Amino acid sequence: MTIFRARTGLGLMGALALAPICLAAMPAAAQEAVRLKLPPQPLAEAIRQVGRKTRTEIVFSPSIVDSRRVPALDGSFTTQEALDRLLAGTGLVARRTAQGAFVIERPQTSAGPSGGEALMPVAADDTDIVVTATKRPEVARKISGSISVQTGEQLEKLGAQGLGDYLQRMPGVIFNAARPGDGAIAIRGIASTTGKDQGQATTGIFINDVPLTDPSISIGTPDIDTFDVANVSVLRGPQGTLFGSASLGGAVNYQASRPDLGRTSARVQGTLSGTQHGGTGGAGKAMINAPIIDDVLGVRGVFVYRRDAGYIDNIGTGKSDSNTTVTKGGRLLVSWKPGPRTTINYMYLEQKQETEDVGFQQPLTAGTLRKSTLFDDRATFSTLIHNLRLDQDLDFATLTATATYHRKKSFQQDDYTSTFSADLFGLAPVTSEARGRNRGQTYEIRIASAPGGAFDYVVGAMYDSTKTALNQRVTATGLQAVVDDLFGPGSGAVIAPGDLFIGGEVIGKADEKALFGEATYHLDDRLKVTLGGRLFDQQLKLHSTLTGLAATLGGNPASGLGGGQKSSGFNPKGSITWTPGSDLMIYALASKGFRFGGPNIIPGLPGTNVPAQYRSDSLWNYELGARMDLFDRKLLLDVTAFYIDWSDIQLRLTSGQLNYADNAGSARSYGVEASATLRPIDGVSLTSSLTYLNAKLSDSFDPDPSAPGPVVPRGSTLPGASKWQLSNVLGYEHRDAASTWSFLLSHRYVSRAPGALVAGGVLSGAELGGYHLFNLRAGVSDDRYGITLFVDNIGDSRGVTSGSADPLEQFIVRPRTFGVTVNYRI
């Protein structure tokens, strides 16, 4: 053990009371008296200030100090003395580890924070939070890879509730917001569509390391409300080694706050808002934490109800502000510690989003902030998770075993009249109803080494089995009678029963098995090497049928197609990291990403060019990054340069209004990501990120080689791959004896990008991006009450986030919105 790199066991999130977290060495000054003058304030902030001013690693669970306030502290103290003063009367103690860091914990247990919540180190800055990006708790800024993290506190200050509120504040990440469940996350330009993928998505989504991403056919993208999360981290670059195939471009991981087994607490939050050109919205959210047996058993429940006001007028149905979306659901987490070395956690999560009328505008046919359909385009998307997790301290390592049941369901009703009516004898309306569901089980077991040696590792195995069912019916009112007139009485009941034009049904099952691991060897105090890999095998089986008038006219009545695909291989990863001092880390990394292929879910009609299946695609990611802590950690800098080689790109295409997938050559993506956090004086902070991205096809692509026509040329920009992306957040806080006053101004900019890969190289569809967004928030709070006033989208921008070209339909950012949020804690 050396003085430059100290590592000690400080608590495993969600499980062990003691587990591996890598920490920087504590300076010798931590044992010297330091002049401190701290005002009365929340305990969490006082601990952070002691850490900053004494340059000491201090680790604690946010929930263990939640809502506590402490009196002023004035004088010269060592770190231990200062913490003892702050913790007097709280029932908490500060324990100094053998390596010099401090842990805030309850004296009843030597195993760290109850409930296994992730510990938060606050050495010189509270941005050093702990995440599970490496399948074990680790300080984010110590990870050799591109990672950005927003704590629950930071998300609340931003007013963030869903993916669109915070993802694009992280470098290299774009969220193409569309109908709930169909939004698409693109990291470093790795996307072939700005909507839902035909197969697996390119970005994995996880909560407490539990996968929310579909293993084969994409049902949709869950958008979990961020109320009461500990943090949300985004890992850029392929994460297939530890997280699997559906993380080709990267991964998003929520860490939900877990129960505090030592104290009862609760929180209620209410919001009222009004959208310009739209309606009134609001939200009610609640959290309650209750120990059932002190330091042994506890529960934490979260409930969310949110009504996002509509702002699109449907002139076809006569409804104003028709695109209202209601989100409701929550989580229940239970933690049980039957012994000092064992923790069992259970998580139940359910969330449902219902949209009355999908909120795209049709500027060419209906006007700005307007659409015109004959009936509501309704949409519903729901997610259900049951997860059981065991963590066992084995002294030399931590054993973690998880079992998860997951289910997603979607429903979409769309007006297809403008698309099909002219070809269906002028019949109207033409209605599409699509339903999707998947359900399955995921099991994982892994062992992570105990800290303190020259060799760190995590190895494990996983198994997932998921069943999928999709159904879509396109009907034209009166079609059955028309067929009777054309082909004779009774023929309509056979050819177009129930006015059926197109009926498609898909039933599938995907089984995936994998062995994975990563190992790090510390060559000396400054240099370490990490190697990892994932050995995987997947089998996918699908059976699909196509019925209705379209299938009959194509000579394919009641057609059925069975198909399958097997994929196996190895995903490697390697990095080397040099840490010449406590203020600088430089790393080089190479990693491979992989996404499963599969059979097309709908058989092609005669004369179409629909392949029986599409191949897996993969990429290699190379990056060089540096992290710098300057001016006594008042300035934190992260810079990463990357290059990605993407092969056999999977594309979602359309033939006769039927979606299918095909492979489209290769692409190259390269760029630079930079972020900075500046804290020049106490209470003032500025966080900025900047991304330059060049993501383009390196081969031309012909979407239909069976027919003459233009191709998508080499050099075409990938969908949604904006060249420039910028985010700035300026915050100010002032604390007095009774309250905290806060002010926050945020800004983000996304440059223009194509909405799709366009044949002929001419943009015939809607461009995305090209807009600035400014938000303003101001509030005051004490240890119980808080009120925040906000204005979002101050400039009332009309930025396009997703859409289609034919017909032109655009999803846009929410117009200017005013509101107030009230918090109450006990």
Describe the structure.
The protein is mainly β and 826 residues long. It is built from nine helices and 51 strands. The strands form 13 sheets. The chain has a 22-stranded antiparallel beta barrel. Strands 13-18-19-16-17 form a five-stranded mixed sheet. A four-stranded mixed sheet has the order 8-9-5-10, covered by helices on one side. A hairpin with a 5-residue loop joins strand 29 (430-449) and strand 30 (455-476). The longest helix is centred in the N-terminal third of the chain and has 12 residues, at 43-54. Mean pLDDT is 85; it is low at 1-30 and 108-127.
Write the layout of secondary structure elements.
Blueprint: E1 7-9, E2 20-22, E3 34-38, E4 41-42, H1 43-54, E5 58-60, E6 69-70, E7 73-77, H2 79-87, E8 93-96, E9 102-105, E10 120-121, E11 130-131, E12 138-139, E13 146-151, H3 152-158, H4 163-166, E14 173-176, E15 184-187, E16 203-207, E17 210-211, E18 229-236, H5 240-243, E19 250-256, E20 265-275, E21 280-293, E22 297-308, E23 313-314, E24 325-339, E25 342-355, E26 370-371, E27 379-393, E28 397-415, H6 417-420, E29 430-449, E30 455-476, H7 479-487, H8 491-495, E31 500-522, E32 527-547, H9 549-553, E33 559-581, E34 584-595, E35 598-599, E36 613-614, E37 617-630, E38 635-647, E39 650-655, E40 658-663, E41 666-678, E42 684-697, E43 724-735, E44 740-750, E45 753-754, E46 767-768, E47 771-781, E48 785-792, E49 800-804, E50 809-812, E51 817-825
Parallel strand pairs: 5-9, 16-19, 23-26
Antiparallel strand pairs: 1-2, 3-7, 4-6, 5-10, 8-9, 11-12, 13-18, 14-15, 16-17, 18-19, 20-21, 20-51, 21-22, 22-24, 24-25, 25-27, 27-28, 28-29, 29-30, 30-31, 31-32, 32-33, 33-34, 34-37, 35-36, 37-38, 38-41, 39-40, 41-42, 42-43, 43-44, 44-47, 45-46, 47-48, 48-51, 49-50
Helix pairs in contact: 1-2
